[in-house]
Write a structure and sequence with these properties.
The protein is α/β, with parallel strands linked by helices. It is built from five helices and seven strands.
């Protein structure tokens, strides 16, 4: 019956894959690498974010790192003072970035391959947004055929 399945698949209307631009969130909240971890935690709480993009601080809007809730939790669990530790001491440096034109499925593959939950979105090298695993999963579920 494999022939029947193949025929059914080809009978479905072709849909262009959604791109990251369709689901990305603007980078409403960012931090600089010299900020304290406590500042990042505060900003995450008030922005409802699970990660913040770390910018270079030179007004180029270039992402140089990523700090996540998990980074902060590990810092606290290690007994470190979040008012003393700087973001640069625990951020992921040189984060993998994607373009807004990247397909949702390619973004999912990048996340799976790198074990990432967040990906900054850039145009050239300038930060224009961020996607997280929820954005990607939601888009993939919207694309899947109902039935």
């Amino acid at each position: 019956m494999a022939g029947t399945d193949a025929h059914e698949s080809s009978a479905q209307p072709h849909r262009d894959p959604a791109t990251v631009a369709d689901v990305m969130q603007p980078p409403l909240t960012t931090v600089e690498q010299n900020d304290h971890v406590a500042a990042a935690a505060y900003l995450m709480k008030h922005a409802g974010a699970t990660a913040l993009v770390v910018l270079d601080g030179q007004e180029t809007n270039r992402p140089v790192g990523l700090i996540t809730e998990a980074d902060i939790v590990h810092t606290v669990a290690d007994g470190k003072d979040v008012n003393e530790v700087r973001i640069q001491d625990l951020m992921t440096t040189k984060p993998t970035v994607i373009k807004a034109t990247t397909s949702i499925s390619d973004a999912a593959r990048t996340m799976m391959a790198g074990h990432f939950r967040h990906l900054p979105v850039v145009h050239d090298t300038r930060l224009i947004g961020i996607v997280d695993v929820r954005d990607i999963c939601g888009a993939l579920l919207d694309e899947s055929p109902e039935g």
